[in-house]
Design brief:
seven-stranded mixed β-sheet; Rossmann fold; 7 helices; alpha/beta; single chain
């Protein structure tokens, strides 16, 4: 799904409104990590004197209060306690596990007071897996390589207290080892191939899988039946968790 279409979806509108409500109404400096199109950067500029919009590729946002920079969350080029508010939404789920603690340490170091985090809640990243046609490797949906709950986020930011946490949406998706293995054998025909995120291994754009052969169709059908018991017992949970932290 392309970004403009994603922004207009009902679920994204609800998620965005909740994040906006959590943003403290205060002046000073704010940093939007993973700014992309600058949607939240512009909203932050309504409440803060200056906003820095940061992404792996320098954003292009035309606004008198917004400065766009290219940067890496694991090595932020700012001094300690530089920003009154740090907003980091839809980012941490993409950070490789070996770099996650470093990224969180950098956010903690640069934040002076408030840190607002938004991530998928208890996402089963086996659901919606894709198979890269370039390198043949299996990718998690949307490039999400981490899963989170409230407790894990608190452990990742030990020098912060939680001001408020909110849980948004409802997630009914889950699977099991056998079902996900069978879908791998089937070429993952139901993966998130419309995502903008490339293969996390080779960096190539993901493409729709070819027509399934007879064996792959059998695996697809078997995966569906293998997942029935899990779906019957599974209790839906929120789709997103948003937490506003304040530095101790």
């Amino acid at each position: 799904m392309y970004l403009p279409e994603y922004r207009d979806s009902q679920s994204e509108q609800i998620r965005s409104q909740d994040l906006i409500q959590l943003i403290p109404s205060c002046g000073g400096k704010a940093l939007d990590v993973g700014a992309r199109d600058g949607y939240f950067s512009v909203l932050l500029a309504e409440r803060f004197e200056s906003v820095t919009a940061l992404d792996l590729e320098k954003p292009s946002i035309q606004h008198s209060r917004i400065t766009c920079v290219k940067g890496d969350i694991t090595e932020l080029a700012f001094s300690d306690n530089s920003f009154d508010l740090m907003l980091c939404a839809e980012v941490l789920e993409h950070i490789p596990e070996k770099l996650l603690a470093k990224a969180c340490d950098e956010l903690s170091r640069v934040t002076r007071k408030y840190l607002l985090i938004g991530v998928p809640y208890k996402q089963d990243i086996r659901v919606g897996r894709t198979t890269c046609r370039s390198c043949g490797k299996k990718n998690p949906p949307w490039g999400h390589v981490n899963t989170f709950d409230k407790d894990r986020l608190q452990r990742l930011f030990p020098i912060f207290n939680i001001v408020r946490a909110s849980f948004i949406g409802e997630n009914f998706e889950t699977t099991n080892f056998l079902s996900s293995l069978l879908l791998d054998l089937a070429g993952n025909p139901y993966g998130t191939y419309d995502q903008e995120e490339p293969c996390i291994y080779c960096g190539k754009k993901l493409a729709e899988p070819p027509e399934r052969n007879f064996f792959q169709k059998i695996c697809t059908k078997a995966a569906k039946y293998a997942n029935y018991p899990v779906r019957f017992l599974f209790k839906p949970h929120p789709n997103w968790v948003h937490i506003l932290f304040t530095k101790k």
